[in-house]
Structure formats: C-alpha cells, structure tokens
Hints:
By secondary structure, the chain is mainly α. It contains six helices and no strands.
Amino acid sequence: MNPEVQVKQILMRELLGQTLRELRMSAAMTLREVSAAARVSLGYLSEVERGQKEASSELLNAICGALDVSLGDVLRLVSDKVDALEKVTRLPVGAAAAA
C-alpha cells in the first residue's frame, strides 16, 4: 500500500452539520425558519450545516430548540455516525490501480 495515500479524517463539525440538516429537512423547515426561531443568522446556520463553522453549545441548544429535538438526541445521532464511519474499512483511492 502506498504510504502517501491519505484517508479523510472524520470531522465532528461536518457530521453535526449533516445531522442538523437532516433533522431540519425531515421537519420540513427552511433555513430561514430555523434561523429565525434559533435567533442565528441565516448565513451562519448555513455554514454550520455545511460543516464550515463550529457551533457553540449555546448556538447548538438554540438550533435544537428551533428543531424541537433534544441536544442529547442530536449528539447520539452524531455519535452513531462516528461509530459507523470508524467501522468502515477504507480503501485508498489508488489501491485498485496499484494492484
């Protein structure tokens, strides 16, 4: 195996953002509705959902409140995603070509 091939890291902010987006969409809410209910700017909420910004605990609580989900439930969902990703055997992209 080529030692130069790098595997992408698991980033909590990306998994958290993905989870928040999934919950928002399953609640049939727009970014604008959640941002207004959570009292956070639309742009910042969008960046959190895309995993570009880290959400503070206060902001995360506000978003969870706007989505009517508990912080514990959100963190459990994120934890489940981390657990699933850690169990996946990742093959480097160049492995098939080198074989």
